[in-house]
Amino acid sequence: MGKKSTKDALLDSAEKLFAKEGFHGTSVRAITSEAGAHLASINYHFGSKEALLKEVLERRLLPINKDRLEMLEAALSQAVQEGRPPSVMEIVRAFADPLFTRARTSESIITFSNIVQISLTQHDSTVGALFLGIMRPVIIAFIKALGLALPGHDKEQLQLKFHFMVGSMLHGMRMLSMARNPAHKKLHSEFAGNIDSEILMDLMYRYIVAGLEAE
Amino acid sequence: MGKKSTKDALLDSAEKLFAKEGFHGTSVRAITSEAGAHLASINYHFGSKEALLKEVLERRLLPINKDRLEMLEAALSQAVQEGRPPSVMEIVRAFADPLFTRARTSESIITFSNIVQISLTQHDSTVGALFLGIMRPVIIAFIKALGLALPGHDKEQLQLKFHFMVGSMLHGMRMLSMARNPAHKKLHSEFAGNIDSEILMDLMYRYIVAGLEAE
DNA sequence: GTCTATATGCCGATAGAC
DNA sequence: GTCTATCGGCATATAGAC
Fold first, then answer.
1. I need a labelling partner for B7 at 20 to 30 A (CA). Which of A4, A47, A195, B131 fits?
2. Is B187's CB within 8 Å of A124's CB?
3. Residues around strand C, C-beta < 7 Å
4. How far does the CA of residue B175 sit from the closest CA of chain A (Å)?
5. Share of chain B above pLDDT 70, in %
């Protein structure tokens, strides 16, 4: 493995720091010094701090979302072929697997998920708008698919249930993050101790599917 | 109603702005000018920007957590009296009702919930440590209660399920927030349109209970 | 308790030498 | 592509008049 380029080092450092202190809470000085680069390097490689954030988000989200849509498409067309509606579990897995299988082997995906949390929270700021722009097509496709798996639900119920699923998954990632980070571990040990990611994923999938199918 | 004090005006403005742009993204200048107060007022009334955040959090969380623990205690002792374990729904309601009934009549609680999202995301920063300090006793009490309602679950499963419940609720609040805020509405209308809070709460409670009772 | 003025320092961004 | 020096601005915090 050759040593990573300055640009990649900046992306890695920015990801780490944005996840810890948020976009606004992280200075370009902190990023460049963490990456061992000079102060002007962010402007040289990305143009601005904001453009750096965009690349940080896209670097992780675009491959995950590609996998999500492919898995969903595969499940949907197989269901059509078998003359049945897609199952709720198939849809949940298409949304969750691309994220959680990566999280199991990559520390940085867990770090990254913290940035997603932050992005979702800051709706109308730079961060939130960027994030939603990236996620929009995926959200629309999955709500539509849920409509096939859950007949009798109106549009509003489907939107709500989709977002419940997202909420459960985000919080699942948050717990993985807590469990892996020594600093969090100390803070949370009493009520979120040593979490095994296998157990978490298994329990989470069953929680979400049961919730989506409720009533 | 007498006009509100400078201190209350500062708390209100800080809550609004922290929710929109985060703690780091909000300047004391923005807060004081929004509140119609002078620049030095935050340091005079609170000592620092950080101490202001602490008061913003406690002002909302302490009454809610008091109600949560009272409702939980009432449910638990009634169950004992009737010689049965508490139901999952009773526990979910004890945790969620104090928050969501307030959210139905108070715009500011919805705003506030955004700050909770931010707090949970920034685990090891000022914000996260503050938040967890306030929530700790509640978290411990509810995980213990879940153990009574869900026999046969080990400690780890109970912790995970508790956090799934929290995740679902947080995301539910996030959606209420989106639905009420005109700026968010524009961004999200395709996949989270006009959300009725009655429908959301009803669907959410059933989602959570089904998820918790899964398997 | 209010407000102005200001101290002190970090911010993002850029110019220009190498 | 790297790095230094620096610009102009805004940050938090405080001192001190009223």
1. B131
2. yes
3. A 26-30, 39-40, 42-43, 47-50; B 6, 37-41, 44-45
4. 8
5. 89
Q: Which protein residue has its CA closest to C1' of D3? A: A38
Q: Tell me, yes or no, whether B37 lies in a domain.
A: no
Q: What is the widest separation between alpha-carbon atoms in chain B?
A: 60
Query: Is residue B40 one of the residues assigned to a domain?
Result: no
List pLDDT tens digits, range B79-115. 999 999 999 999 999 999 999 999 888 888 888 888 8
Where do runs of H (alpha helix) occur along B28-125?
Answer: 28-35, 41-45, 49-81, 88-105, 107-121
Q: What is the mean pLDDT of residues A159-169?
A: 92
Helix axes B6-21, B28-35, angle to 10 degrees: 130
Give the pLDDT score at B174: 82
Q: Which amino acid is at A101?
A: T
Tell whether A207 is within 8 A of chain B (Cβ): yes
CATH number of the domain enclosing B155: 1.10.357.10
**How many distinct structural domains can be found in chain B?**
1
d(CA A61, CA A38): 28
Q: Which domain holds residue A166?
A: 58-212
Provide the H-helix boundaries in A82-154: 88-105, 107-121, 126-149
Q: Assess contact for A156 and A96: CB atoms under 8 A.
A: no
